[in-house]
Amino acid sequence: MKKEKEKPKRGKQNETQQLLMLLGHAIQQVAGKSAVDLAGIIYGKRDLNEFIIAKKIRLTINQTRNILYKLLEAGMVSFTRKKDKDKAWYTYFWTLDPLKALGFSEQMLKKEGENFRKQAHLRKTRRFYICKNCGIEVNEETALINDFTCTECGNVYELNEDKKLIDEIQGKINQVEKNIAQVRAEMDKLKAQEVKEAGRLKEKKKPVKKKTSSKKKKVG
Ligand SMILES: [Zn+2]
Fold this sequence. Notes:
By secondary structure, the protein is mainly α. Helices cover about 55% and strands about 10% of the residues. Zinc ion binds near residues 134, 150, 152, 153 and 155.
């Protein structure tokens, strides 16, 4: 008998997928195209054996190390290493710094959003002309210089008020905003976890209650 409860939480799954995609984007920016799948492999894990990473990402160990070193330079990963038994070399174990990686992702998204906003502003405040014959669009200055005539076919330019395009750009801006919000929410979650863990560690460190006066003298 199958349990009905087995159904995966779709919304949550999509959210994770989306987050990994955003992270993959950031990692790709730092370490190149072949690194795009690394996010799904390394996110949320600790001390991942580099040979396992290489196998999962389907690259050679050297290619994998190249990617990881680039991420190391960007401060997005850290490593520990262990000397192999009876061998002279080390195996490296990698951990992604999720806050650094997400921070990088946030910066990238902000830049993206800024570009779209500029585009939208340009669209809204400046006129563009189009030759409907060739589908070539020019800005107002160029249209003026060309005497409002297409240089390709001699057709007269028409004002190109592409409401759809502005809507499209606005849609992209909205998506970027959503992505930023998601990245930030994840960062907040991680920070809260860190604070919690730090608190727990503190508790463990002082099993004996110290007798200290609660009031401290202020100096100065
Ligand atoms: Zn034309």
